[in-house]
Amino acid sequence: MLTNFATALFGIADMWAIGRLGDAPAQGAVELGAKYMMALLNVFNFLRTSTVALTAQSAGRGDTPGQSETLVRALAVALAIGALLLIAMPWSIPLGLDLLEAEGRVRAGASEYIAIRYWAGPIWLGNCVLIGWLIGQRMVRQVLVVEVAANVVHIALDLLLVLVAHWGVAGVAVATVSSEALKFALLAAIVLRHPAAREFRATIRMRITWQQEALLRLFALNRDLFVRTLLLTGAILIFARTGAQQGPVTLAANGILFQLFMLSTLLLDGFESASQVLCGEARGARDRKRFVAAVKAALAWGGLTGLILTGAYLLTGAGLAAWFSTDSDVVAESGTYVFWVALLPLLGVASFVLDGVFIGAGWTRAMLGTMAVAMASYVTLLWLLEPLGNHGLWLAFAAFFLVRAAGQFGVLPRLTSRSFSACDR
Asked: Domain map of the chain by residue range?
């Protein structure tokens, strides 16, 4: 949770720094630019989640060489994807801005932001793999130290480049690129000191690393996670696009509220990461009792934390939102809709935790199915609730998480019985 909180400071620092300018179009540009980069990169977040699951399962089996092989394979995939993203850069940026319906000053600012931050994409992919591998090894404290260090640099650069050097939107983007590069260097140094990674070069040359069966397993897992994340990212992009259609003030307000939502999400994702590791280890060890205990503990503690976050946002949400802008219209608009952000931690926590359970256990196909159902419900509700304006948008977004959780709870007993039927203890 602390590691994810440190991660959330990236977006919070960016929105706060640009908000000090009192320029709604500039703040909206950072919001759209950040959403674009989230859409572009988060669909490849399977690099992190699959690495966590496969590393934890190898750890559960006591398979040290398997952990090294997972690292090598995942980094190879990250390198290939990063190269393809850079090749596609001239076409992907204007296409993304068209899809987000960015216009005028907002489009110009978002284009400037993306053109700079895009170059950190391959580094971000590498960080996903390294973080996933360390989490799978239960080395979360080391990840926390790196996140804190990178965020200190990021925040310092935000203050220097935006408020002192007056680089505006470009300053926010440069701060992000610089901190991502620092994070990669620190993570790589930690990973290479681990016993399972010391034979990195030898593992690359080993034939077993590139065996068809192992690669097919990796790609099958990554395929399901990729499509699932693509649907989730599509839901977020639709959210941003719908907000943009309501003008720069609503767009900026939704951007601030979305950062508060992401803060709570990243805190609750601590239980998702824990579920990935604990359930992955239990699946690797073929221990049903250990698996069920991990699921119950994660849901209980996650639910309690979600309730606490909801209460905290109900009491302080409006004040927190107002802190992110000096534009009175944006502040007033964010206060109107902050109630929805307060509800989301409680409504969404079950789906976050169960995502970790399903990934750790390797049930990615089932998770993809429940995501598809939730996405269909989300799009339908957006159409039905359009007369409610921005309230309808937030209501549909909240329902999206509830439908996901309902589907996951529905298939959980059957999947557990099937996976552990031959190894009950």
From this structure: 2-420
